[in-house]
């Protein structure tokens, strides 16, 4: 299996000491967008999607084609019923634009190089987590505002994954110092949970900013095989968080 098709964590770990060279874009090798500050501020999740569409259209049209049509109101309602939760409006807005992504004709990726889950995939992930266990797996390390009693918390609703043990989730059960709807990253290999953004709008705005600032690039090995796979620079690469100075406080 080509290295880029493995989970992003495994691919980076195999690179070892070559991490920086493998992940940091080289203008002669990896395709990266330039820094574009000409756009107005993003005020809604839908506006963020429009900017993402523009970037993908210019730099990764195959990934744009991988994005599914919108989820229906019924599909969103059915997902909420399974979760037993009323999800934030921003989460609904996320899925009203695209019901995740597919891999038809392209092995693509999106947020932090992860795959955007369909509602059905999110439900499957929820059902895997919502199983009574005698010995919950406690969180080893986490940012403030995040519960630590169980790394498989059923009220952490997944919306992206790396194909392995790294997921992006909407946290619907924060501690009193957290915010319902905050976006977290769960690393099940290390039982670590990272707070990324206070809500999905902030998450989407950050993704747009990172795209337009050139912090994302297309993996060269994937391009050689005719695929577009979005990767990101080490300083924002939460999947491989232990290599970034930003999250060193969670290592020990």
Automatic annotation (TrEMBL):
SUPFAM superfamilies: SMI1/KNR4-like. Residues 70-210 form the Knr4/Smi1-like domain. GO terms for cellular component: mating projection tip. This is SMI1 / KNR4 family protein.
């Amino acid at each position: 299996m080509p290295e880029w098709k493995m989970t992003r964590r495994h691919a980076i770990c195999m690179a070892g000491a070559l991490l920086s060279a493998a992940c940091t874009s080289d203008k002669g090798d990896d395709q990266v967008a330039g820094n574009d500050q000409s756009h107005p501020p993003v005020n809604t999740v839908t506006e963020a999607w429009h900017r993402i569409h523009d970037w993908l259209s210019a730099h990764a049209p195959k990934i744009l084609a991988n994005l599914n049509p919108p989820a229906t109101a019924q599909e969103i309602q059915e997902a909420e019923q399974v979760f037993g939760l009323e999800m934030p409006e921003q989460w609904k807005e996320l899925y009203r634009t695209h019901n995740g992504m597919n891999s038809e004709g392209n092995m693509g990726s999106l947020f932090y190089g992860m795959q955007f889950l369909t509602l059905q995939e999110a439900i499957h992930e929820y059902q895997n987590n919502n199983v009574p266990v005698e010995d919950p797996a406690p969180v080893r390390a986490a940012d403030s505002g995040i519960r630590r009693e169980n790394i498989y918390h059923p009220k952490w609703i997944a919306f992206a994954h790396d194909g392995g043990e790294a997921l992006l989730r909407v946290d619907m059960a924060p501690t009193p110092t957290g915010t319902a709807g905050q976006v977290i990253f769960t690393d099940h290999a290390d039982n670590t949970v990272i707070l990324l953004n206070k809500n999905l709008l902030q998450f989407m705005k950050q993704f747009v900013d990172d795209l337009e600032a050139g912090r994302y690039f297309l993996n060269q090995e994937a391009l050689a095989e005719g695929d577009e796979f979005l990767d990101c620079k080490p300083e924002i690469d939460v999947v491989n968080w232990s290599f970034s100075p930003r999250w060193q406080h969670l290592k020990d």
